[in-house]
């Protein structure tokens, strides 16, 4: 029985890691549940198939459109959404026979729906409900005579959506955050498992090492993604601001410790020093050779301790009050203070120290989430760690966020997008009427969706391509499914429900796959409405291509936001956040005042995530310029490397006020000034300003600390780790200068400007 429970838990952990917080599963179940309940209520009332379709589509819209996290906010928005939906269906029915007036109103509605995004989640939701319900009126060919029945149908659909959301599949911020914490734990366990595979892999086994390294990169990125998702749910899901800040810090500690452990294992497995870029740039080579193999004794000890660390994360027996797990934890924590450290090379001993740091981070995470009490078999190391955690918890304090400049007029993103979508929709209406006077609205819908969650012309092009690809594949599936169900109404509804679940379950993963399920569902809906034909599905492809083309034309010609401009803006934000973290961390390490470095580090992570999203059109396989694609990937990878070292510096600096083993060193301020100076020069170049100076390079960071150098550089010391992160950060910033065209000083001269090189932005 115990084996069955462990197997089931292992399977659930793998799924939980693949769907953090079960957000995709819950979204699919909630939407499907609302549709099924609406059909179950409407069918006994003798509702026609056309109105059943309208009810199902409205229940779907009323469920997926709600994006607010607070339950009270969801209820208010859902209540406000019903009158908006009734007004939209009424206007759709009234204007159905008035072509010109209907088209003009549709464009005005589209403008208003997009413009409402400026009012936050509620404005976005109400605008989306208005647009989608008006689309439903066009799809079912609503008329004024059918309005009373449609009113009842929509009211029932909204009521069913509310019942499923608040009673059948309830969702609260606290539950979501708890599931996200569990997903973080599962992904942390996966990362350590891949690190064990890294230790075991044979450098001469062909494709084996590359697969392990790819798994290591992917699991590291997935852990970071889970940490960011927790960050986005902390305010609503925590009991107070102090608890949110505490959990945020513990998650950051665990992420940094695990990432650092992976880096040190790579170093230990290599015959020479491995650049941190290896962990962030896909397909980056790692010099693994027989000379880089770890000795048998050290390898056995490392495997044992990594498996013990994995056990601490998985905690298969959390209720066991025996001494096995505490004994393992105590032994690993002792490595932080050089107690029981196995023999080996400096690189190997660094790995054991990193295991100790990871064990401490896991203990802190457990204390923050479970509040584990003191245990009678706690070692002195565990007691000291608990005392450090308590001191950090007392010192937690928030700082006011900086106010950002608000853009106005056509510079405001929501206003610009509203104008662009309106122009694109007008073109789609005209073109769609030429293709079909009955189903022209498919072109408008495509034009609308390609603008959702996009911020540049490149993103719109990529989304339009994915929409068209998914539609073509969905047409093929729709033909097959329509032929299979024939005239079996409820079989068609069952397949529609499955397609809806697939649509919402895959939406965060692949827009093309989501479009596939949407089109397959439409083929089944046309079958239910007795309007199915192969010509209709072919027309669907034509209208989709037209709508995507109209959206791209509007994005290019009307208030365009070039991808290069967008990436440069995001790059400037990342550099500013990077400078904030480095400056504050070095200041605290140098004896300056304590600040909330975790918040600064998370702001950096958020900005870097935005930059990564904005460069996706440049790194997409369909991007025609290969050199630009490689440059964008290289810059993002370098920034990810710099962010890793900045987070590590911040984590170490956070220990200064409360730890007895980490002391401030005023000499570090000199190294920090050089790094922030170089960041300022690169940021000025990105803003198209003339850099006031040249990139300073040459002597290593360690050599800048003239006095007490040998003591500072003692291997394994905290000061040694700080200097190593500063050195890698310095090298990463200098590496950024070359592709971005910032003047460099020759290393051998250390202060003479070299000839400026041609400037490249983040887009190459």
Key words describing this protein structure:
single chain, disordered C terminus
Structural account:
- Helix content is 71%, strand content 0%.
- Helix 2 packs across helix 7 (147-168), helix 11 packs across helix 12 (324-334) and helix 16 (441-451) packs across helix 20.
- The chain is globular.
- The longest helix has 30 residues, at 208-237.
- The protein has helices spanning 2-18, 23-42, 49-64, 71-94, 99-115, 120-139, 147-168, 173-200, 208-237, 241-269, 296-314, 324-334, 346-370, 380-395, 413-435, 441-451, 457-485, 489-506, 511-528, 534-557, 563-589, 597-614, 616-619, 626-653, 668-686, 709-712, 718-740.
- With 764 residues, it is mainly α.
Instruction: Pick out the low-confidence regions.
Output: 316-322, 397-405, 707-713, 748-764
**CA-to-CA gap between the ends?**
58 Å
Outline, from the CA principal axes? globular
Q: How would you state the average pLDDT, rounded? A: 81
Architecture blueprint of SSEs:
Layout: H1 2-18, H2 23-42, H3 49-64, H4 71-94, H5 99-115, H6 120-139, H7 147-168, H8 173-200, H9 208-237, H10 241-269, H11 296-314, H12 324-334, H13 346-370, H14 380-395, H15 413-435, H16 441-451, H17 457-485, H18 489-506, H19 511-528, H20 534-557, H21 563-589, H22 597-614, H23 616-619, H24 626-653, H25 668-686, H26 709-712, H27 718-740
Helix pairs in contact: 1-8, 2-3, 2-7, 2-18, 3-6, 3-7, 4-6, 4-7, 5-6, 5-15, 8-9, 8-10, 8-11, 9-10, 10-13, 10-24, 11-12, 11-13, 12-13, 15-16, 15-20, 16-17, 16-20, 17-19, 17-20, 18-19, 21-22, 21-24, 21-25, 22-24, 24-27, 25-27
């Amino acid at each position: 029985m115990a084996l069955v429970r462990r197997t089931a838990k292992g399977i659930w952990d793998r799924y939980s890691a693949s769907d953090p917080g079960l957000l995709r599963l819950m979204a699919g179940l909630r939407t499907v549940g609302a549709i099924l309940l609406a059909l179950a209520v409407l069918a006994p009332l003798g509702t026609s198939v056309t109105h059943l379709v309208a009810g199902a589509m409205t229940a779907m819209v009323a469920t997926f459109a709600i994006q607010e996290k607070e339950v009270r906010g969801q209820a208010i928005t859902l209540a406000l959404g019903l009158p908006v939906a009734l007004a939209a269906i009424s206007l759709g029915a009234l204007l159905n026979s008035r072509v010109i007036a209907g088209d003009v109103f549709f464009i005005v509605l589209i403008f208003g729906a997009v413009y409402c995004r400026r009012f936050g989640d509620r404005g976005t939701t109400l605008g989306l409900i208005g647009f989608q319900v008006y689309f439903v009126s066009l799809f079912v060919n609503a008329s004024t005579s059918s309005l009373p029945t449609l009113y009842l149908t929509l009211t029932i659909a909204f009521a069913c959506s509310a019942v499923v959301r608040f009673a059948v599949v309830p969702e609260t911020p606290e539950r979501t955050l708890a599931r996200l914490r569990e997903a973080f734990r599962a992904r942390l366990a996966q990362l350590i498992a891949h690190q064990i595979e890294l230790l075991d892999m044979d450098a001469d086994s062909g494709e084996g090492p590359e697969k392990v390294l790819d798994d290591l990169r992917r699991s590291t990125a997935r852990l970071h993604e889970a940490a960011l998702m927790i960050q986005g749910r902390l305010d609503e899901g925590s009991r107070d601001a102090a608890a949110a800040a505490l959990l945020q810090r513990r998650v950051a500690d665990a992420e940094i410790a695990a990432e650092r452990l992976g880096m040190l294992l790579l170093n230990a497995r290599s015959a020479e020093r491995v650049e941190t870029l290896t962990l962030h740039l896909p397909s980056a080579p790692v010099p693994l050779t027989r000379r880089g193999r770890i000795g048998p004794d050290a390898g056995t000890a490392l495997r044992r301790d990594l498996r013990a660390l994995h056990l601490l994360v998985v905690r298969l027996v959390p209720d066991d009050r025996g001494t096995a797990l505490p004994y393992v934890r105590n032994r690993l924590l002792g490595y932080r203070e050089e107690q029981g450290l196995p023999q080996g090379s400096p690189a190997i001993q660094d790995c054991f120290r990193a295991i100790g740091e990871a064990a401490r981070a896991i203990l802190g995470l457990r204390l923050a989430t479970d509040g584990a009490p003191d245990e009678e078999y706690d070692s002195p190391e565990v007691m000291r760690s608990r005392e450090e955690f308590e001191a950090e918890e007392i010192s937690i304090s928030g700082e006011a966020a900086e106010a950002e400049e608000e853009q106005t007029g056509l510079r405001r993103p929501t206003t610009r997008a509203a104008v662009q979508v309106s122009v694109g929709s007008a073109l789609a209406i005209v073109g769609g009427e030429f293709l079909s006077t009955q189903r022209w609205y498919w072109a408008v819908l495509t034009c609308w969706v390609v603008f959702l969650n996009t911020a540049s012309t490149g993103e719109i092009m990529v989304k339009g391509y994915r929409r068209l690809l998914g539609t073509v594949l969905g047409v093929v599936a729709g033909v097959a499914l329509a032929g299979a169900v024939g005239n079996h109404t409820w079989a068609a509804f069952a397949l529609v429900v499955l397609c809806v679940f697939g649509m919402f379950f895959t939406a965060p993963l692949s827009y093309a796959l989501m479009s596939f399920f949407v089109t397959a569902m439409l083929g089944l809906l046309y079958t239910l409405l007795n309007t199915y034909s192969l010509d209709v599905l072919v027309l669907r492809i034509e209208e989709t291509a037209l709508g995507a083309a109209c959206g791209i034309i509007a994005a290019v010609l009307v208030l365009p936001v070039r991808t290069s401009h967008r990436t440069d803006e995001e790059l400037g934000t990342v550099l500013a956040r990077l400078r904030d973290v480095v400056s504050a961390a070095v200041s605290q390490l140098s004896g300056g005042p304590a600040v909330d470095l975790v918040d600064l580090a998370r702001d950096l992570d958020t900005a870097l995530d935005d930059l990564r999203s904005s460069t996706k059109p440049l790194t997409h396989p369909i991007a025609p310029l290969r050199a630009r694609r490689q440059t964008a990937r290289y810059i993002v990878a370098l920034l990810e490397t710099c962010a890793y070292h900045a987070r590590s510096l911040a984590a170490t600096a956070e220990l200064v006020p409360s730890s007895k083993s980490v002391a401030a060193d005023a000499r570090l301020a000199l190294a920090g000034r050089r790094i922030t100076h170089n960041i300022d020069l690169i940021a000025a170049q990105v803003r198209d300003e003339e850099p006031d100076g040249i990139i300073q390079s040459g002597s290593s960071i360690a050599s800048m600390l003239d006095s007490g150098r040998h003591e500072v550089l003692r291997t394994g010391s905290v000061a040694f780790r700080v200097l190593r992160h500063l050195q890698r950060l310095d090298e990463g910033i200098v590496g950024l200068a070359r592709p971005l065209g910032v003047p460099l000083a020759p290393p051998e001269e250390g202060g003479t400007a070299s000839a400026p090189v041609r400037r490249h932005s983040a887009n190459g």
